[in-house]
Amino acid sequence: MAYYAPERLTEGTWNLYFIGVHPDRREGRASALLDYVERALAARGERLLLVETSSLETFGRAWALYRKCGYDEEARIRDFYAAGSDKIVFRKALVPWNP
Description:
Layout: E1 2-6, E2 13-19, H1 29-43, E3 48-54, H2 60-68, E4 72-82, E5 85-93
Parallel strand pairs: 2-3
Antiparallel strand pairs: 1-2, 3-5, 4-5
């Protein structure tokens, strides 16, 4: 399951707020789901997809997923969530796609 929505006051920028895969069915499904979201947005002519996450090591699997799928770390706000817990923003430009 994934939840994504447009960023207000922008043209074609979207936020991925949530992506989740059942722990027993992880192998490749998160990448496939993320690819589906990207293609759906690109087919509509959307431009960017952003993902925010924490810098805590417990989010390491998420960072690996985003990097593997072509996302770059675009920004970091130190101590955003709490002392020692930065907000990391990953960014990917969507490639126009016609199914």
